[in-house]
Specification:
Elements (H helix, E strand, L loop, with lengths): L4 E2 L20 H14 L4 E3 L9 E5 L17 E13 L3 E5 L9 E5 L2 E7 L5 E7 H14 L10 H16 L8 E2 L4
Parallel strand pairs: 1-9
Antiparallel strand pairs: 2-3, 3-4, 4-7, 5-6, 7-8
Bound molecules: zinc ion (ZN).
Zinc ion binds next to helix 2.
């Protein structure tokens, strides 16, 4: 595992991340390390601040869900690098789904999001894209987009659910857990 995952409670996860410039010589190897780290931790998405860089980059691979029995038969996943993404529009009737996050291990909670997303972004070659995603693909992008804005999925939970998770979340914040992968915790 090339990079460590920054845990809930680390201040980097609350930063509004900076745009990336095209001539960044370290970007390609950083993205390669993000892929490696995401697969190592069995994630379907990973945002740069989760591995210690407050920049507007994330990777998504929902192709891993193509054979998932939980998903509809016609689900087609996506594999994308999104750089400097800008949400153009979200639409449709909000739907709830249990999300998790590599930065908040062992915690899951229902988050309500709109099912259609139009987003503009640059790929790893700095080609511009304007694309529409839906369902689970949109959800994973929305979750990762939140990360580069300093937002975590737990922020979206109901007050009751937040209260129920409070002790577990505190344990993560304090580093009082035994994660299955390398993590960096915030100041105590
Ligand atoms: Zn996350």
């Amino acid at each position: 595992m090339k990079l460590s995952v920054y845990a809930y409670g680390h201040p980097i996860l609350r930063k509004k991340c900076e745009e990336v410039t095209k001539d960044n010589p370290e970007l390609a190897s950083f993205i390669a390390d993000m892929w490696e780290t995401m697969y190592h931790t069995y994630g379907i998405g990973l945002a740069a601040p989760q591995v210690g860089k407050a920049i507007r980059v994330f990777v998504v691979d929902t192709e891993q869900l193509n054979d998932d029995e939980d998903e509809k038969d016609n689900f087609i996943g996506i594999k994308r690098v999104l750089i400097n993404p800008v949400k153009v529009q979200e639409a449709g009737t909000p739907w709830a789904y249990e999300e998790g996050c590599l930065s908040i291990p062992e915690i899951r909670g229902k988050v309500t999001r709109q099912p259609q997303l139009r987003i503009q972004f640059y790929d790893e070659n700095f080609n511009f894209h304007d694309e529409v995603f839906d369902g689970m693909n949109a959800r994973v992008i929305q979750h990762e987009y939140d990360h580069i804005e300093g937002i975590l999925f737990t922020d979206h939970l109901t007050a009751l659910k937040k209260q129920l998770l409070k002790k577990k979340m505190e344990k993560i914040r304090k580093g009082d857990i035994s994660p299955k992968y390398k993590m960096v915790f915030g100041p105590k």
